[in-house]
Design a protein that fits this description.
Elements lengths: L1 H8 L18 E5 L11 H15 L9 E5 L4 H13 L2 H6 L3 E3 L9 E7 L21 H10 L2 E9 L3 H4 L5 H10 L1 H14 L3 H12 L4 E7 L2 E7 L5 E4 L10 H16 L2 E4 L1
Parallel strand pairs: 1-5, 2-3, 2-4, 4-5, 8-9
Antiparallel strand pairs: 6-7, 7-8
Length: about 280
């Protein structure tokens, strides 16, 4: 739910379950392996790791009667490889009992499993530099695929990958966002809570929460000299101030004149204002 809120729903989905509803913890596991993508879009190390993890889970009493699914985020060749390994290492009775299914995100549309494993497949080799950026896709198709994949798990999701996201993936790459969320799921919630506590109006809360959900760094009630700004939006090259003008604090002629003078002063110092 946290990832879907960040990716697509701007924090508007509310959970109907608590962590205590399941003995399986943590709900999100990030698992990096030393895998290599082959030309046919397979990653044997990721596939072997996922199958081994499923077998280990099946032997753990905590996962008693839990069902399992595996989703490839890069094509069907990885799905076929994982299916073959599942067939070789888990007998038919157990596969049916645990409802083990491998597929891509569309194969799981409208379906769920207690535990889901995601395979990202991709990696970089040597000093080739970052991979080509994967964005939201035409008509948000990639974004929708990632949202479906991550939201198929009832109790727990494993993100299995073979990359250093900071080195292999560019800022704004949907794969990097997924891995970084899996590495620290609480970071997004904590950043939202900090903004809500510091905001002076519901308008500021809503704007800041939306910006954080789309990947921006937001510093609320930021002080510059003797001035206090509604929020500063993080950027490596620009100093951006976002002012949320409401009737309560910005309506009288004196308040408007003070705002203009403050903005003039800070703009001369290189700050860029968006009101």
């Amino acid at each position: 739910i946290g990832y879907s809120n960040r990716l697509s729903y701007n924090g508007k989905i509310k959970p109907l379950r608590e962590d205590s509803d399941t003995p399986i913890h943590p709900p999100v596991i990030s698992f990096r392996v030393n895998g290599q993508r082959k030309r046919n879009k397979t990653n044997e190390r990721e596939a072997e790791t996922i199958v081994a993890a499923i077998i280990a889970c099946m032997e753990d009493p905590v996962y008693d009667r839990k069902t399992f699914g595996v989703i490839s985020l890069l094509g069907d060749d990885q799905v076929r490889l994982i299916d073959r390994l599942l067939f070789e290492h888990i007998d038919l009775v157990q596969r049916e009992k645990r409802q083990i299914l491998g597929g891509n995100a569309s194969d799981f549309q409208g379906d769920e499993r207690d535990v889901i494993f995601l395979s990202l497949v991709d990696n970089t080799e040597g000093d080739d530099g970052p991979l080509k950026k994967t964005g939201e896709g035409k008509e948000n198709s990639t974004k929708q695929r990632y949202n479906v994949a991550f939201s198929r798990a009832r109790d727990q999701i494993w993100v299995v990958y073979s990359m250093d996201p900071a080195q292999s993936l560019k800022t704004g790459d949907i794969r990097r966002d997924l891995i970084e969320y899996a590495n620290d799921p609480s970071a997004y919630i904590n950043s939202i809570n900090q903004v809500v506590q510091a905001a002076e109006s519901p308008f500021e809360e809503e704007v800041a929460a939306y910006l954080i959900s789309t990947g921006f760094q937001v510093k609320p009630q930021y002080r510059v000299g003797g001035y206090r700004l509604d929020m500063v939006v993080g950027d490596q090259h620009k100093k951006i101030v976002l002012e949320c003008d409401g009737e309560r604090f910005h309506s009288s002629p004196e308040e408007i004149q003070s705002d203009i003078e403050r903005q003039d002063t800070l703009e001369r110092l290189g700050w860029h204002f968006i009101r």
